[in-house]
Structure formats: C-alpha cells, structure tokens
Amino acid sequence: MRTVGILAVNEFRDGLRNRWVATAIILLGTTALVLLLAGSAPTGTTRAGTLDIGVISLSSLSVYLIPLIALLLSFDALVGEFERSTMLLLLTYPVTRWQVVMGKFFGHMMILFTAVVVGFGGPAVVAALLTDSGTEGWQAYVMMMGSSLLLSAIFIALGYLVSILVRERSTAAGASIVLWLIFVVLYDLALLSLLLADGDQWIGQTMFSVLILINPTDLYRLLNLTAFDTVGQLAGVAARSEFGLPLLLGLMTLWIAAPLAATIWIFRRREL
C-alpha cells in the first residue's frame, strides 16, 4: 500500500500544479454558496432549514457537475501515459499495474475530496452563520457531501475504463462526453419517453424500479432525496423510499468496484 500511497500523492500534486483542485473548488463553492443563500428565503414559510433546502438544489445540480469534473480528471489517466510513452518508464520501477490504477484513483479522489469538503463545506458554514436556521439539517447536508464523493468515484472509475479501452486521448475525450450525456441526460429522457409511450402500462413498478437503479446518477438523487424525512417532504417524494439506504450505497459501491476491476483486468493484458 505504500507504493499506492506514493502514486496517489504524486497524482494529487499534479492536480495542484494543473489547477484542478482550485478550479473544482471555485466551481463547486460558488454554486453551493449561491444556491444556499438563495434558498434561505423560503425557510420562514416551509419551516425547513437552509441546509435541507440546499441538499435538494445541490443534489439536482451536482448530478451534472460532479460527473463532468470526474471524467475530465480521469479520461486520459492511462491513455495519456501511453501516448507520452511515460507508462513504460513508470512500469520499470517496482510497481505493478494494479498499483498504478489504484494510485491514480486515490490521487484523483483526494482532489475531489478536497473540492467537495471545501467547495460544499465552506458555503455551508457561511450559510449557517448568515441565516436564522443555523446548522439545522446538517446531517442531510453531510450525507449529500458523502454521496457526492461516491458519485465522483463512480465516474473516475468509468473514466479509467474508457482510458484503457482506447488508443488516443482525443478518442477518450469524445467517449467520456458521450458517457456523460448517456448517464446524466439521455438515460432519464429515454426512460421518461418510454413511460409516456407505455399506454398499456406494460412497465410495472418492479421494472421501473430496476431501470432507476441501473443508472448511478439516479442512485445519487434517490440517496439524497429519500435518506431524510425533511428533505423527502420538501422534494415531494416519499420520505420512506422502497429502496433502503444499504441497497443504494451497495449499488453505488458496485458501480465503483466493477469499472475499476475491469480496468485492472484489461490493463494487465494490454501490451505496452
């Protein structure tokens, strides 16, 4: 694990040098601060805390931003090394291929952990100090920050899978954008169109639930909108979802582990 730690720290330093950390913090922080302060207005009539309302707004927006940031970080993690011919040099050191993948993964997670904690946590502190509701709803907000890290990890892992499957950075970039469009935009549009076209109601509740659970971005929304009663009531969804918290967390963890395992398996069989 020492080797993985060294690789992770090196990746994190590269992120600092390339301004990735600063960019992600500014993007998430500005968005969170604006939404939290703007969302504090209706707290007097809804009797909900600013942070509770912020969870709804931020989870709806983060589902677009966080996957995009994660994919931009990871799409060339491996193919870029191959193109620059630095992968061969890296593997001449006493390091295995799975350690390269996991080292990069933890390094990129350190970048996004810093971005989420500072970018979401800082505005939450400001909102708690400037609004009457204070820290009410902090548990749901912390849950949202944790699930944002899980969503980041999923799309970093998917970015690595793309990166090991292609031969050029430009191809990886295009494939990553397509991946983002499919999971974040097109999947839900297709599901909605399918439901509207299903006049005979062939799609039952069970099938619909399965289709929802397939998409990691829908898992993220469900996790944030149903984990706490107050947030669920504000969002207009059932506070007690049929999907338990262990199931949602387990499926998100599976979405992380499966692409990482596939990336390592393909990497081990790829010729340099």
Description:
The longest helix is centred in the middle third of the chain and has 34 residues, at 97-130. The protein has 272 residues and is an all-alpha fold. The chain is 81% helix and 0% strand. It has helices at residues 2-17, 20-39, 43-46, 50-74, 79-83, 86-91, 97-130, 138-165, 169-197, 205-214, 216-226, 229-235, 245-269. The chain is globular. It is built from 13 helices and no strands. The mean pLDDT is 85. The protein has one domain. Helix 4 (50-74) packs parallel to helix 8 (138-165).
Keywords:
13 helices, 272 residues, single chain, mainly alpha
Write the topology of this structure.
Layout (H helix, E strand, L loop, with lengths): L1 H16 L2 H20 L3 H4 L3 H25 L4 H5 L2 H6 L5 H34 L7 H28 L3 H29 L7 H10 L1 H11 L2 H7 L9 H25 L3
Helix pairs in contact: 1-7, 2-4, 2-7, 4-7, 4-8, 4-9, 4-11, 4-12, 7-8, 7-13, 8-9, 8-11, 8-13, 11-13
Summary of the model, kept short:
The protein has one domain.
Percent in strands: under 5%
Helix/strand-derived class?
Answer: mainly alpha
- Helicity level, as a percent range? over 70%
How far is the first residue's CA from the last residue's CA? 24 Å
Kindly report the average pLDDT value.
85
- Low-confidence spans: pLDDT under 50, at least 5 residues? none
The number of distinct helices, counting runs of at least 4 residues, comes to 13
Q: How many beta strands in the DSSP annotation? A: 0
- Give the domain tally: 1
For the report, how would you describe the main beta sheet?
Answer: none
Radius of gyration: 20 Å
Broad shape: globular
User: Helix and strand succession?
Assistant: HHHHHHHHHHHHH
